[in-house]
Amino acid sequence: MKLSKEERIRIIEKAAKQVGPSVFWSTIIVIMSFLPVFLLTGQEGKLFGPLAWTKTFILIVDAIVAITLTPVLISFFLKGKLKGENANPLNRVLERIYGPVLRWCLNWRKTTIGVNIIALLVAIPMLFSLGTEFMPPLDEGSILFMPVTLPDISNAEAKRILQVQDKIIKSVPEVESVLGKAGRASTATDNSPISMIETIIMLKPQSEWRDGMTKQDIIRELDTKLQIPGVVNGWTQPIINRINMLATGIRTDVGVKVYGQNLDSIASVSERVRTALRDVPGVNDLYVEPITGGKYLEIDINREALGRYGLTVDDVNMIVESALGGTSIGNTIEGRQRFSINVRLAQEYRNSVERIQRIPIQTTTAGTIPLSSVATIRFTDGPPMINSENAQLRGAVLFNVRDRDLGSTVKEAMEKISNEVTGIPSGYYLEWSGQWENQVRATKTLQLIIPLVVLIIFFILYFSFNSIKEAFFSLITIPFALIGGVFIVYFYGVNLSVAVAVGFIALFGMAIETGMLMVVYLNEAMGELVELKGNSRETITKQDIRDFVFKGAVKRLRPKIMTVSVSLFGLIPILWATGIGTDVMKPIVLPLIGGVFTSSIHILLVTPVVFEMMKEYELRKHGKLDIYDVKH
Description:
15 strands, elongated, alpha+beta, five-stranded antiparallel sheet
């Protein structure tokens, strides 16, 4: 077909005006479907917020370009002899396949709808049987080994254990390097006791690992080799460990915080909680945060003896401070650097109670006397560290979750604790923290926001179609789109998490957008029918409705297939992606891929069936068809 320049420009202008409203409403719907992602807070909000903002800005720019720049480019490049849709061999093949299948569905309407409803009913229990977790574990490429030993361990023993552990860890072939530390850095922001060891294990590239080895296999092998008496092992990753500690104060996946007013009672309740959790499947690296067992050097001054020697409490305290802690006597200047000079007794004169007792004190009347003459020196028990939150003392029972999903593990643990840990003293209570705390917060946010977003999308559809019936008709695409998403997530063995929820949220907008496309073309076909035969039950038959429904579905197949194909071609390569970050990307993409397949089947086969039944009902009930002027 050969067109003049004026005719071509006029057709392009008309088509652009038709596309404008559809582009606008489609953009609004997809942006609104991402509203729950914008309202996420905490760790999940920081992770997925940039994704939502990026997608939103891309859609806005895309809509502006489609309305302004695209028609201009079409006027430049769309020239020459224009071919019809049937000229495309691929389009002809698709129509030959799709046409008979759609005819069968229109002839067997109840069977078609029944099969879809059965698939939906099967997907619902599958969805509820999926495990749950806060976020899919991101493989950071390294391991953080955090064993905890007795709180009264000496510096020498901690050093020995650290060296033994590092030597054992380095013996594993997959380990590239290992670096461990005990205690804390010289800063007030690090409160790690000497009993807590942190070892960063850097792994070799996966291509150099033994055949069939996974990161979990390496952790299990290391855990078996590092069974040292008095040491409780803990395995995590460096980045997520810091995030957990900063966000919740818990350095493992999950922690049960025990609040109260007395440290001994908190320790007793914590031990009962640990005993209850010991046999829960999935619970690993279980231990109680040390509350008692710390050792303190107590120097109790005898005031009567001080009086006999003419000394004061300050005199003795100054001697003890200088001998054990050190006294600053000045500064040394080396270029632009200044260093404080500290003086105290050498290590061999203060490394035991007996030597401390012999620390000399100069008196005015009796000469030099030992410290033991005016003070009693002994070791006493006490808390190694006092933790408090919300103006209350706090203990914690800590554990990691492996080989099981976080949600079911914590729920079973809650049931065991409620059944076995009874009779907790008044004023004492338990609180679950760690990743579980984040999961509960994110779930509450999504449960509140998603229904609100669906309602907003419904109103947008209503303003687009000017019909509640048509808006509802487009909205029922969502549950059928979920079918494929649930199936693929289930068979891939992925747990429900915030990442999976973000994938389903993105699927909402895509499914409604594609559904709107089909409804628009079916309404256009009904408009052609009314224009041809009038709008009355005397002139329109059921066969007429079926013929024009078939025409509206089959003859405009190409734009629907293109919409689906673009989504799939962009998403499927992620399934074969490897490397850091794919752990989080795949749970987002899986619902989209599965949902696009099932929503496309529903839109291409079920939507025309339901549309035909709806138009037959209108013709029978009202004697005419309701025609909606929906431009695309």
